[in-house]
Design brief:
Structural class: alpha/beta
Shape: globular
Strand order of the largest sheet: 1-4-5-6-7-9-8
Low-confidence stretches: none
Number of strands: 10
Strand content: 25-35%
Mean pLDDT: 84
């Protein structure tokens, strides 16, 4: 039997131990995020002559009050340390972003959701990436509420930020959802009219575990163009 009184603190220590939701302890302030999609991913099937995006290195991460949430925990190699029939214990249905960096500062709990794409398009943003933001936030909200430390931040506000890292922008279906009020229309107008460069947009999301909200989404294009590399670096 296990006492309810000790459950939250015990669960928090276990999440850190198996790195599902772990304290960031790297004094260098650097985190490498690698692509976790399987070999059947649509980007991998489609590639003939354009480069994959396999890794993004995030630098200048604060060393205090930072946690890392493994959104796609079920695909991580360290899951093998668990007993086989417990592999899905800390996963939930739905696609999620590669990783989330959690940072507490000035009564804001920042959730930097990092997604990696070889190619970004208006349709992919509306039908895929935004859904990953929503699923990730809903899943993470459960872990935050069960965590020993976060519920003590009584005056804090959750502040989600989407970060979409990509190699190329493409719009193979320019007639798809041209409404400028919809996500696809807004992405097309911002990225299509300004060429391939970094931009910031406010996009509406509706995570089932939280409320409907507008969040800043930063589009970070690979700055290495000749040739386009399979990895690049961003600053948090």
């Amino acid at each position: 039997m296990f006492p309810i009184k000790a459950l939250r603190e015990h669960l928090t220590s276990k999440l850190d131990e198996i790195t599902v939701l772990r304290k960031f302890r790297d004094s260098s302030g650097v985190l490498k995020i690698r692509e976790t999609a399987d070999k059947n991913d649509e980007d991998r099937r489609a590639i003939q002559d354009r480069e994959l995006l396999n890794e993004v290195e995030v630098t200048k991460i604060p060393v205090e009050n930072v946690w890392i949430f493994e959104n796609e925990f079920g695909q991580q190699t360290f899951i093998e340390k668990l007993i086989n029939d417990q592999k899905g214990a800390f996963t939930s249905a739905g696609k999620k972003v590669e990783k989330t960096i959690i940072y507490y500062n000035s009564n804001r709990l920042y959730l930097f959701m990092i997604e990696m794409k070889r190619v970004i398009s208006p349709r992919k943003m509306q039908e895929d990436v935004v859904k990953k933001f929503e699923n990730s936030l809903s899943s993470l909200s459960v872990f935050i509420s069960a965590h020993f430390y976060f519920p003590q931040l009584e005056n804090a506000t959750i502040y989600p930020v989407g970060i979409c890292c990509y190699n190329y922008y493409d719009d193979p279906q320019p007639s798809y959802n041209r409404d400028p009020k919809r996500i696809a229309g807004r992405v097309r107008e911002a990225l299509g009219n300004n060429g391939e460069k970094n931009i910031l947009l406010l996009l509406t999301i509706e995570p089932i575990g939280l409320n409907k909200m507008k969040i800043p989404v930063l589009f970070c294009q690979n700055p290495n163009r000749n040739p386009v590399t399979k990895s690049f670096t961003i600053e948090l």
